[in-house]
Amino acid sequence: MLTTPPWSGQWVADRLGIGLHGDGLHDLLGLALRRNPKRAHLLVSNVLGKHVPQRPGTVYGHARDLGLRVRALLGEQEADRAVVVGYAETATGLGHAVADGVGAVPYLHSTRREVPGMASGGAFQEEHSHATGHLLLPEDPALLAGSGPLVLVDDEFSTGQTVLNTVRDLHRRHPRERYVVVALTDMRSSADHARLTGFAAQLGARVDILALASGTVTLPEGVLTRAQALVASCTAEDAEDAEDTTAAAPAAPAARIDLGWPAGTPDGGRHGFLPEHRARLEGALPAMGARIAAALPPTARRVLVLGNEELMYAPLRLAQALEAHSGVEAYFSTTTRSPVLAVDDPGYAIRSRLVFPAHDDPADTGSRERYAYNVAGGGFDAVVSVVDSAGDTPALHAPGGLLAQLAAHTETVLLAVVPCYRPNGNPGPMSAPTRPLRGPAFGSYAPDEVGWLLKDLSDVPLEAPTEEREEAIQSGGAHYAESLPVEYQPSAEYQQLFKAALATSAERIARAVGAVTELVLAERGPDAVLVSLARAGTPVGVLMRRWAKHAHGLDLPHYAVSIVRGRGIDRTALSWLAAHHDPADAVFVDGWTGKGAITRELADAMADFPGFRPEIAVLADPGGCVSTYGTRDDFLIPSACLNSTVSGLVSRTVLRADLIGPGDFHGAKFYRDLAGADVSALFLDTVAAAFGTVGDGVAEDVKSLRSQDRSPTWAGWAAVERISEEYGIGDINLVKPGVGETTRVLLRRVPWKILAQRGAGADLDHVRLLAAQRGVPVEETDGLPYSCVGLIHPRYTRGATGTDGKAVSSL
């Protein structure tokens, strides 16, 4: 015989005497106890998709039907002039679906996430909430300035105070004649009804109320104190099984799903969601549902699509699309900030909870705990976690993080990241990443070798032939970092030179790597964080990391960041590093020094980041520009011979206003199509293979270096100034000293001539070959502190760049 399950508020009703009165309320609502000193109980909706997993069609259908009722109430003409506003965090998806029912109208939801540079279009308080402050941040301030009806949507009305606070603030800014207030349930008392009626009369505006169900809540005297005592006592019998402890890291990371999110479409209504955005999303949903379905194992029949705090509407629609495409039994719910007691009892609405740290770097001072309710024990074959790119941080993936907690309760965890919409900037898939890019998704290095603090511009056409590129720089005053040279494709002869040079110099490089790494560890300790300057510094950073592992068993973190002459270091990357590591542990790494321009650029940039040390560790310092180095010899480092094919297939970095906006990392491209020519691993493995034979030499070098005065001499800078004057160039930035910089001139620029130290041997074989291929004369000379120097003449090149990276005026 089938038994009727108990009402999911019975446990609370029996113990505290709290009651719900009204037709249909027990079907829509359950009860739970808050961990909140302001209110004892929580009305837990069964159709909202927040605390209780529900079928997406049920969640969306109830909300959209409310929107259709609003349209009928207003009439076609007024409904088409309406703006819909939902409340964070619980009603962001509800409000959005209501807007769908109202018609082709704009939607905005309040937010608790501060967005730098955004002016507030409204602010109000939700007194009873665990997080009281709300902001309205429309991209277009005119969105709230119209005279049409304003539709306010919340999941429930308990007292109506939040609505009063909202209308008071918005009416003061932009008075209007009509408001419609919408909720799933209206639980106000008669006094609260009267208060809202009087408030509307005082404003001189009409305020209508629409709800799925109405009723009242009875709260016995002293219920708050009794509820707090009950919560405190429910730690053993009732709540022990429901309180999740920190989960270990999952055996494998969550598989990522590339949603194919439509470019230019906001992730939700935080900054406004317009009818054209809705049309774009509707068109893309079937394909996104198919992508999720394809990523699920064939045995997954019961699947939860889990949204994230304010990100409710996009995951809800994705759950619908998944169900429509595959026929799986899809459910939808969302993580939350709201702390609620969990009790594993069928008469209680919150039967389990997962606890994990916030992973979107919240700016507020509230609790850093977040929760997912009724997921554990839900019997889900798979969980698809949907977060926005601001929430895709190391905390999400860490042991004890959301993904680890989910993995403890389901066979399959998938991760889908919706790109954050950036107001007044570049929306869509190229929104700012909040975690490092790693191979094999970006670059050919292994994922633990380096994290690229860069924005992926792989699909953006940025290359131009060298002459055309320099012409564009000169004619428009553009910066060299706004475009990329066409990647040099080495001839068979040049590739053979590279391999020969690598075989000859591997031990020499290994010895320099060991020496500079030992100096870094001696000066910074075992907590050093390697921060290589992309991209020449990155192979060296990987080798230093390998040496630390080889010699000391250390696993040093390693990131690659961009620095651009005339523009400075990537400030977003530094902010990210400061948020995730002690800035004092950061060690900047480059391959070699030329005249020291980047060294000075870094020092200037550090003025705004006092926790970082403005010092660079390099493999070779022929220019005498730094104090931490492996050698001051100017010798061939084979990684200088090639571009991306020896640097993880990553391009030089890009900084262009239409591609890189506020909050973005600098950009770069991953040249997947060059995989057949990639020698990045060959270079690293060949050098690392020599580690075992150079230990004694490294020890000698370190002893010698530590006993020397290693202060920068800037001898290279003085030599460059002399050469610039002697050859009538007039700008030191057109003089590129050293083997590495000369190689770059020949690969990327339009060189004038090459100066070679008389008697320089095989270290310059590749330079001579490149010069011959490009018809550039090589002039032997004496008295150079470098093996060679590359010269660019502004009267020969059309766009040689100057100190700020832009064109130099004619001599």
TrEMBL record:
Pfam families per record: PELOTA_1, PRTase_2, StiP, TRSP
TRSP domain location: 267-405
Highest taxon of source: Bacteria
Domain Cysteine protease StiP N-terminal residue range list: 443-687
Domain PELOTA RNA-binding: 714-793
Signal peptide: none
Protein name (record): PELOTA RNA binding domain-containing protein
Species assigned in the record: Actinacidiphila bryophytorum
